């Protein structure tokens, strides 16, 4: 992800739930910039649609250059609070960064291909911790499981790191494993039996 988006934002000097609610009604998302080199947190509001567009295009590790009344801040998204009903962003935390700086981030792992017939793939980890240049954070890391047979495992150390990216997670971290199909089916049946027994136990009380 070598590119980034510049978005105009407004300084925010009022706080509290009431003010934040009014911002959201007006289509704005309250946020804050913090970081080692930031003397005091910088509070701002940003257009919700523009923020959502960046998240859709670049994911949770998106880089945003905020233009607050002509003063530009290069930042990385650290956390987004989402409304559980609307899924709209309610608040965003941004980390101030510098060009050439390296950061540790969790990157999604995407498995492609089909394992051997009669097997099922279990993904144990959806993300992997890496260190990358702030302007070259990969949006995802892919790994082909094509043809993998029973008892095969995909470890973090098996993942090919993109340019300017190095693995931070333990190389033995299990990303995925391949099992017999019947093993997976038995596990599902056991879970179903447990859920069916639960109401009966409550009735006995």
From TrEMBL:
Q: Is Chloroplast there in the keyword field?
A: no
Quaternary structure and interacting proteins, as annotated: Part of the 50S ribosomal subunit; part of the 5S rRNA/L5/L18/L25 subcomplex. Contacts the 5S rRNA. Binds to the 5S rRNA independently of L5 and L18.
Task: Give the residue ranges for region: Disordered.
Answer: 182-205
Q: Which terms does the UniProt entry file under GO BP?
A: translation
Stated name of the protein: Large ribosomal subunit protein bL25
Q: Which GO terms describe its molecular function?
A: 5S rRNA binding; structural constituent of ribosome
Concerning Gene3D superfamilies, the annotation shows: Ribosomal protein L25, beta domain, Ribosomal Protein L25, Chain P
The organism of origin for this protein: Corynebacterium diphtheriae
